[in-house]
Every structure is written in C-alpha cells, then in structure tokens.
Design brief:
Number of strands: 11
Radius of gyration: 19 Å
Bound molecules: nicotinamide-adenine-dinucleotide
CATH architecture of the largest domain: Up-down Bundle
Strand order of the largest sheet: 1-2-9-6-5-3-4
Number of helices: 14
Mean pLDDT: 94
Structural class: alpha/beta
Strand content: 15-25%
CATH superfamily of the largest domain: Dehydroquinate synthase-like - alpha domain
Low-confidence stretches: none
Shape: globular
CATH topology of the largest domain: Dehydroquinate synthase-like, alpha domain
C-alpha cells in the first residue's frame, strides 16, 4: 500500500507492506547510503550488495555521540553530499540515529527509513522525532526531522526474535490505552503468536498504530499539546529503562502500570482498569513487576522534555481511551511513585 501524508507542510511517503527493492524506484537518481543495524545486516546481507553502507552496532548503547561521529566520518569517505539519500535500516535505535545525522550533516540531507522491528514499525519510525542519548539522559539531544519516505517490508519480521516482538507490544498497548477501547479489547482476543503467523493481522495492527500516531503528530508536530499524550508510560518508563538496562518496550509497559497507579490517586482511574491493563501486558509476555528505586527519578525527570519550572506534564488516564495531561510537581511525583507498588 502506498500513500502520502503531510506534516507541517512536509510530505512523507509511506510504502507499507511493500518489498524492500521498491527502494530503487523511490530513489531513482540519488546516491543511497544505508545505515544498517549490524544484526539486521547479518541476517539480510544480500539485500545490500549493490550500495554503500555503514553498519551501526546493535543496541541502545549506540544511540550516542560516538556513533554519530563515526557515521559522519564514513559519510565523508563516501563523499556524501546534499544530493545523497541516507536510509536507516533497523529498529528504533537506527531510525533515531539516522534522522539525527540527516538533520546535522551538511545542515540537512534527505533520508528515509526501513523499520525492521515491530516497535519501530508501529512507533519509532513514525512522526519525525529523532534523538540520541547523552550520558544518563535518554533522548536528550535530537531534532524534529521528517523522512521523505518510510518503507515497511514485513519480511524483516521473519528474523525478529520473539523478545523483540514482545517489546513492540509495549508501544502497541500504549496506543490501546490512549485511543480506543475497541482496539484494547481486540488485543485481548489475540496473542503474539497470532500476529506472528498471520500477515493480514499484523498488517491491520501496524496500520492502526501508524494512523493513530499520524493523527496526533499532524495535529501537533512540535509536541506542544496533543502529541504529548504519546509519552504515556514514558516518563517513568525512560527512568526504568536507564536504571535497569531493560529494553524500551518492556520499560514502557512498566511505565504504563505506574501511570495507571498514579491515575488511580489523581484521576479516580478504576483499579479494575489497572488490573485489565496489567493482564494485557502479561498476555503479551511483558514484565509487570519491578522494584524501582526512586533515586534516579529526580535527575531523569528534571531533564525530561515535558518538565517545566512547576513540575512535569505527566500523562494520566481517566479511563481506558481517555488520557489527561496533568502538571505534577517533582516532589509530589516522587512521593506518589514511592507509594505505588506494582
Ligand atoms: N523517535 C521516536 O519517536 C521513538 C519512539 C519509540 C521508541 N524510540 C526509540 O527506539 C528504540 C527502541 O527501538 P527498538 O525496540 O526497535 O530497538 P532496537 O533498534 O535496539 O532493535 C532491537 C533489537 O532487534 C534487532 N533487530 C532489529 N531488526 C531485526 C530483524 N528484522 N531481525 C533480527 N533482529 C533485528 C536489533 O539488532 C536489536 O538488537 C529506543 O532507543 C527508543 O528510545 C524512538
């Protein structure tokens, strides 16, 4: 399926469930340089024989300055210029790095994404936010920078380990909590294996998430109001991800549960709904328990991009499908987290 969406006047072309080689017709005249996750390259090397490529070591640790510098060094070796198209092939780590490098190299060059994890297909590759970590701070440095295209070839999912499928559901369950009780209930009727086996089911799932995110991003590209909702589960999730070195999707699931607990106190969110969300996370084999030290929350939250002088814009739920943004003072947030057990 091919279509185009416009964000702040900039078009992004979507090629969903299209074969990888479609890329040759997308970039007819341009020199392509691929930025590829090393693990994805290992599994799909034959796809990249004809073009220059730069490998990015797999894993969150790559989302840092050293990787960016290394990529720029190699772009220079390939004589990349403003006519070059760089294409990130990998999960959210690669899309974040690619969008960032493309924004700063020669003050901006064209780029595209070929997301290869479920998480990046439903979320990380969508919406034009790209960031790298800085020290302990998650996504502290980054840009709003839209790709010219996003190509999803579901064949990449055939090599995706089951744990990475699970991580994708951390973000998918986030959408279900934010937007639509029918989508939430539909997830209850399926399992990871159903989606792994059935390309039509995974296609419908991915398309639903992409269109949910696109609607919010179109309404608020620079994240000044409605787009903030997409951070549901992420404030505490990011702190957990950094402190416990667990994958993003798992940390978001745990962050969602903390946000539910806070919503019980601050928004009269029904404890029965917290339990429902916990059950859904368990159904998709995501962790629902953690002993989380409050010590780290201070510095994490202080540098969170939703922080203001007063506190932090935290995403709560009134009920499933009805989110609410509430500014919570940092001290109160710490007390509430300390009082919450999952
Ligand atoms: N910018 C955004 O809007 C946004 C949104 C959500 C998440 N993110 C970021 O995305 C990152 C998480 O993304 P992720 O979960 O895709 O992680 P990831 O990019 O680290 O990929 C996860 C693992 O899967 C492997 N992999 C990728 N594709 C594969 C394939 N097809 N076959 C086999 N192995 C494969 C990778 O080598 C890696 O080990 C985090 O850094 C998070 O902050 C960004």
């Amino acid at each position: 399926m091919q279509y185009c969406e416009s964000f702040d006047g900039k078009p992004v072309n979507y090629f969903i469930n299209e074969p990888f080689h479609t890329i040759t017709s997308i970039a007819k005249e341009q020199q392509i340089i691929y930025l590829i996750d090393a693990c994805v390259f290992e599994k799909h090397a034959s796809l990249f024989e004809a073009s220059p490529y730069i490998l990015i070591p797999s894993g969150e640790a790559s989302k840092c300055w050293a990787t960016v510098e290394n990529i720029i060094d190699q772009l220079l070796v390939f004589n990349a210029n403003r006519q070059t198209l760089i294409v990130g092939v990998g999960g959210g780590v690669v899309s974040d790095i690619t969008g960032f490098v493309a924004a700063i190299y020669m003050r901006g060059i064209a780029f595209g994404f070929v997301p290869t994890t479920l998480l990046s297909m439903v979320d990380a590759a969508i919406g034009g936010k790209n960031g790298i970590n800085f020290g302990e701070q998650k996504n502290l440095i980054g840009t709003f920078n839209l790709p010219s295209f996003i190509l999803m070839d579901y064949a990449f999912l055939n090599s995706l380990p089951i744990d990475e499928f699970k991580n994708g559901f951390g973000e998918i369950i986030k959408y279900a909590c934010l937007s639509d009780i029918r989508f939430f209930d539909m997830l209850f009727m399926h399992t990871i294996e159903d989606y792994q086996k059935d390309i039509h089911k995974i296609d419908a799932l991915i398309q639903h998430c992409v269109s949910t995110k696109n609607k919010m991003v179109m309404a608020d590209f620079k994240e000044s109001h409605v787009r903030k909702l997409l951070n549901f589960g992420h404030t505490i999730g990011h702190a957990i991800e950094k402190a416990h070195h667990i994958p993003h999707g798992q940390a978001v699931g745990l962050g969602i549960l903390y946000a539910c607990k806070l919503s019980e106190t601050l928004r009269k969110f029904e404890p029965a709904n917290t339990l429902k969300i916990k059950n859904l996370l368990q159904q998709y084999q995501l962790p629902t328990q953690i002993t989380f030290s409050n010590d780290l929350i201070d510095s994490m939250v202080k540098h969170d991009k939703k922080s203001t002088d007063k506190g932090i814009d935290f995403i709560l739920l009134d009920t499933i499908g009805k989110p609410h943004i509430q500014n919570i003072p940092i001290d109160q947030l710490k007390e509430l987290i300390a009082a919450s057990t999952l």
